[in-house]
Amino acid sequence: MLHRGNLRRVVGASVAVTLLAALISFYVADRAGAGPTRCQQHRADARERAGIVTGEGERVLVIGDSWSVGLGQDDLARSWATQLAGEVHVAGFSGSGFSERASGCGRVAFADRAPTAVAAVRPQLVVVEGGLNDYDQPDRAIDRGFRDLMADLAGRRVVVVGPATAPSRAAAVPRVDEVLARLSAVYGVPYIATSDLDLDYLDDRLHLTEGGHREFGDAVADRIAAVEPTRPAVLPR
Questions:
Q1: What keywords are assigned to this protein (predicted)?
Q2: What is the pTM of this model?
């Protein structure tokens, strides 16, 4: 007979294995754009991060980009998502965004990956983090990707976390921020702006240091707690 604590660990491990298997089958090799070596590494990082489950409580699924994966960190378990309350699962892919062509690694946009991740985790809350990789994408591409993502997440509690002002892409952040805030309002989901945060970045001026991840995660957790949705996302009429 399993004790309650052991049962929780078994269930949590089962979910992690299911999500990991789903991601392995989903990330089919695609050599377009960023090149096979880089894309293969992104896929490997995504699988590793998907196997890391942190915290206890309601199931939270983070769908995001390299920040959620923890690119640039020695330990991917220290990405900002670890700071969130609940049993946190991460479905991240470096270079991905709301737009279909934000990444050169195939169909890895948020909307492409959401159905697989949601089916594996069955979360009570979905946190979507991104926007920095949409910096060079037209508004209509962001709009289309956001619409497709909300269709996948309709009926679920959703929070959208926008881009921080990473120095290498700072000029594009206000536009992406505005687009995501507007779309979030249309679909009735809370929007967490993070462009006001002063964070520590690695030398590439795009990815966070360990301290930057911790600070970003703390800020996002606090802001989600202040606006956490009580109603699910809706499709506009």
A1: Hydrolase
A2: 0.84
Query: What is the 3 state secondary structure string of 54-81?
Result: ECCCCEEEEEECHHHHCCCCCCHHHCHH
Supply 38's token pair.
């880089």
**Per-residue model confidence (pLDDT) at position 6:** 47
Ranges of the chain with pLDDT below 50: 1-11, 21-35
Largest alpha-carbon pair distance within the chain?
A: 58
Q: Are 137 and 168 in contact (CB under 8 A)?
A: no
Burial zone of 69 (CB within 10 Å; 0-12 exposed, 13-18 middle, 19+ buried): buried
Report the C-alpha gap between 103 and 108 in whole angstroms.
7
- In angstroms, the CA 149 to CA 138 distance is 17
For strands 157-161 and 191-192, give the pairing: parallel
Closest CA to 189 of 148, 231, 220: 231
Let me know: does 104 contact 96? Beta carbons within 8 Å. Answer: no
What are the chain's domains?
Answer: 4-227 (3.40.50.1110)
User: In the chain, which residue ranges form alpha helices assigned H by DSSP?
Assistant: 4-26, 36-50, 66-69, 110-121, 139-153, 173-187, 210-227
Could you tell me if 88 and 55 are in contact, meaning their C-beta atoms sit under 8 angstroms apart? Answer: yes
Neighbour count for residue 57 (Cβ, 10 Å): 11
Nearest of 176, 106, 178 to residue 141 by alpha carbon? 176
